[in-house]
From TrEMBL:
GO biological process, one term: glucan catabolic process
Organism: Dyella marensis
Protein name per UniProt: Beta-glucosidase
GO molecular function (one): beta-glucosidase activity
PANTHER family reported for this sequence: LYSOSOMAL BETA GLUCOSIDASE-LIKE, PERIPLASMIC BETA-GLUCOSIDASE-RELATED
Entry-linked InterPro entries: Cellulose_Degrad_GH3, Exop_C, GH, Glyco_hydro_3_C, Glyco_hydro_3_C_sf, Glyco_hydro_3_N, Glyco_hydro_3_N_sf
């Protein structure tokens, strides 16, 4: 770390002063000039290996241009088969957040190994004179091997930043690598080295800290844990995996915290803040770097040759390979998902083309043959990829299931040692913000109520990138071996002779001595997690009401807040006697109990150690006013902090309109209106329990789904009638079309005689994208509630301008149709997913 600081041309203090002198809210000039000589120089730790270079050269001499191009393409397992790999000689496959063997969310180690073996056999098939080149198989193991059922789930990175413990990070990396290799996979897309500067960004929890020094320190530690220490026999051995430093560059610095947005910062800030983790990562021998979706001053990173080639590969001496992000090359001007020589020529060596790989292969092959991609650039990219495969020992390793850790996966995945490590990480990451009158630690011999809707919910405490991309649609049964926070407290209280009740709604049988209320954010990942401001659940105060009710009953209240980032929760902090930032602790909820509870003899079992890695906001407006709790804040039990009385004015005015939830409990949510459009073109309001068009073509009535009148039934009497949800102002859903985001409708089909039904999105006068739902709906059993998901990219393909959506939901059906709706929202999981029209 000190060596890295010495390499900086501008001292951190001087940088801070320079940045502070900018006018508030001002953005530096949109200058994209890069001066590589001013960037910190890293040193690749692996000496030149003549034997390795000879092997690479000999193999490349035998490869056809078709085989070389195949090495540059990475396809997702949901859109590629072993036969495709055999035919196209692809260099890599990945399993995206929602991609699993056999499509099973709770895929087991055995299923992962079977999948890896099938693809390995295809890659090694030499029939037809092909070269046998083993595959790299990539996955987002970002807080443990989070895509495999029963794996150890470590706290998310924003929590780990609070531990200030690089050795812990190194051990977590090693444990994660072992569990990944035990399933036959050899590459993780981690660690994230973003330095988030705006907590509205939905991926803030993937960053260790807002402080570049913390990120730089953790970068080498996590990479050494995942890959082993360069220069030792452990480096890239059978118990380690390839790591990816991501996302290069400034994904945590985009304007307004917008995912895949534009970092409008100076080159100085880009270099000294957002690039801080990359020199130590390269010093540690990181084998891959992932390019960022985002832009720097308007220029997409996937097409930025000055940064990818001149800085990263040149000045920083990076000798691994650069991999793209999910169809990120398609966002480069002049490119599409299936055609982007500019990205390869800029320095991306392997393009992640999950569902577009076939067209991309064909175009890239043609461009390699025509010279649009120079032969030297093609060979450089292929050589970089092959070196990584040779370093990992893939050519000698054999089938994934036969490798050392894979043969004993049941002993490795979710092992007692790994779970103990994760529990230690939970203990070290907890940050105590308030502890009035020393209410903590709690006496486990007392009567303790554990309340809140996250008290017994492992999914909520684990967050996004957990079994599914967004971490949603899961129950405790999906986490064998894990423990919820409530269960962890109950276990220790009962063992000490105390009494415990767990009740999400806080209703108790006998008045408790103290209440622990566990609440916080719902799981989310990219896109879905972006916020317009820092308010916690605007318009939904059920958590605050629970805290107030228990406090009003004269019960001391301990608030345990689950979140990927600090949020404005002044009111919740005020009403609680103690407030703990527990972040997203993962599978070992017992680690929270280890710190909150005393030993049976009354002594402190474990003190608080966590220090804020992100300043806690004093306002709901990003960047407004001073931080409520500064970076580095965190109480210990011996600290006697003054009683807090925080201001309860958030600074946010006006109605808060969500962009991902449109219909809830049969009613349009705030900021949207429901309307019925008759066959005669005349619209009427639908925001009542009963309504109908003037021409009688469409009727709406209330019905019960899970509660009284929490759904609506629609009956079409004539063709041509529609129902729609109208936004008060257009909004942009274009980013969400790049991925697996769905428009999910919770519905029931009662009658569909003409098999005529469609769903759409509107984008202003004369602009609409419609998708046929007839085949999907007629296949559903009548009278049964289900969730039907339509990929957002389907609406774009059908003609909707996703940059200006003003009707996020439009529905039409034929005469005689009868449908019921309960909820419409963006999501990533559904019972039935519609195929996009081609």
């Amino acid at each position: 770390m000190l060596a890295f600081v010495r390499r900086l041309r501008i001292a951190p203090i001087a940088l801070a002063i320079a940045l502070a002198c900018l006018p508030l809210g001002a953005a530096p000039a949109a200058d994209t000039a890069v001066h590589p000589e001013q960037w910190p120089a890293a040193k690749w730790p692996l000496p030149r290996n003549a034997a390795l270079e000879q092997r690479v050269a000999e193999l490349m001499a035998k490869m056809s241009v078709e085989e070389k191009v195949g090495q540059l393409i990475q396809a997702d397992i949901s859109a590629v088969t072993p036969e495709d790999v055999r035919k196209y000689r692809l260099g890599s496959i990945l399993a995206g957040g929602n991609s699993k063997p056999e499509g099973k969310t709770t895929a087991t180690a055995e299923q992962w190994k079977a999948l890896a073996d099938a693809f390995h056999r295809a890659a090694m098939d030499t029939s037809g004179g092909h070269q046998a080149i083993p595959l790299l198989i990539g996955i987002d193991a970002v807080h443990g091997h989070n895509n495999t059922v029963g794996a150890t789930l470590f706290p998310q990175n924003s929590a780990l930043g609070a531990t200030r413990d690089p050795q812990l990070i190194r051990e977590i990396g090693a444990a994660t690598a072992a569990e990944v290799r035990a399933t036959g996979i050899n590459w993780t897309f981690a660690p994230t080295l973003a330095v988030p500067q705006d907590l509205r960004w939905g991926r803030s929890y993937e960053g260790y800290s807002q402080d570049p020094k913390v990120v730089a320190q953790y970068a080498s530690a996590m990479i050494e844990g995942l890959q082993g220490k360069a220069g030792t026999p452990k480096f890239l051995d059978a118990s380690h995996v390839i790591a990816s430093a991501k996302h290069f560059l400034a994904d945590g610095g985009t304007k307004d915290g917008k995912d895949q947005g534009d970092a409008q910062v100076s080159e100085t800030e880009l270099r000294e803040v957002h690039a801080a983790g990359y020199p130590p990562a390269i010093d540690a021998g990181v084998q891959t770097v992932m390019a960022s979706f985002s832009s720097w001053n308007g220029q997409k990173m996937h097409g930025n040759k000055a940064l990818l080639t001149d800085v990263l590969k040149g000045r920083m001496d990076f000798q691994g390979f650069v991999v793209g992000d999910w169809n990120g090359h398609g966002q480069v001007p002049g490119c599409s998902n299936t055609d982007c020589p500019a990205s390869i020529n800029a320095g991306v060596d392997m393009l992640m083309a999950p569902d577009s790989w076939r067209g991309l292969y064909e175009h890239t092959l043609a461009e390699a043959k025509s010279g649009a991609i120079p032969a030297a650039r093609l060979d450089d990219a292929v050589a970089r990829i092959l070196r990584v495969k040779f370093r990992l020992g893939l050519f000698e390793a054999g089938a994934p299931s036969t490798q050392p850790l894979a043969t004993k996966s049941a002993e490795v995945i979710g092992s007692a040692a790994h779970r103990a490590l994760a529990r230690r990480a939970v203990r070290e990451s907890l940050v105590l913000l308030k502890n009035n009158h020393g209410v903590l630690p709690l006496d486990p011999r007392k009567h303790i109520l554990v309340a809140g809707d996250a008290a017994d919910n492992i999914s909520r405490q684990s967050g996004g990138w957990t079994l599914t991309w967004q971490g949603t649609g899961l129950g405790n049964k999906d986490f064998p071996g894990a423990q919820s926070i409530g269960a962890g407290i109950a276990e220790q209280v009962k063992a000490a002779g105390g009494q415990v009740e767990i009740a999400a709604d806080g209703r108790y049988t006998n008045k408790p001595d103290v209440a622990v209320v566990v609440f916080g954010e719902d799981p989310y990942a990219e896109f879905q997690g972006d916020l317009p401001n820092l308010l916690y659940r605007p318009g939904d105060e059920h958590d605050l009401e629970l805290l107030r009710r228990l406090h009003g009953d004269g019960i001391p209240v301990v608030a345990v807040f689950l979140s990927g980032r600090p949020l404005w929760v002044n009111r919740e902090i005020n009403v609680a006697d103690a407030f703990v930032a527990a972040w997203l602790p993962g599978s070992e909820g017992g680690g929270v109990a280890d710190v909150l509870l005393r030993k049976r003899d009354g002594k402190i079992a474990n003190d608080f150690h966590g220090k804020l890695a992100y300043a806690w906001p004093g306002s709901g407006v990003h960047g407004q006013g001073e931080s409520r709790f500064p970076f580095g804040y965190g109480l210990r039990y011996a600290d006697h902090a003054e009683a807090l009385d925080l201001p309860e004015a958030s600074g946010i005015t006006g109605e808060q309109i969500p962009v991902g939830n449109y219909l809830e409990r049969g009613k349009s949510v705030r900021g949207y209106t429901f309307r019925l459009l008759g066959a005669d073109g005349v619209a009427v309001a639908g925001d009542t329990s009963k309504s109908g068009t003037a021409d009688g073509s469409l009727r709406m009535s209330a019905l019960d789904y899970k509660a009284q009148e929490d759904a609506r039934r629609f009956e079409w009497k004539k063709n041509g009638a529609e129902l729609a949800i109208q936004s008060r102002a257009p909004f942009d859903l274009d980013r969400q079309t790049n991925g697996d985001v769905l428009l999910v409708t919770t519905l029931r089909v009662d009658a569909l005689p003409g098999k005529d039904a469609w769903i759409g999105m509107g984008c202003g006068a004369g602009c609409k994208g419609r998708v046929n739902l007839g085949p999907t709906l007629t296949s559903l059993p009548a009278g049964t509630w289900t969730r039907v998901g339509v990929p957002l990219k389907c609406f774009r393909t059908a003609g909707a301008d996703m940059h200006r959506i003003d009707q996020p939901f439009v529905w039409g059906a034929g005469a005689g149709s009868s449908l019921a709706l309960a909820r419409v929202a963006l999501g990533t999981d559904a019972d039935q997913v519609v195929d996009c029209p081609r």
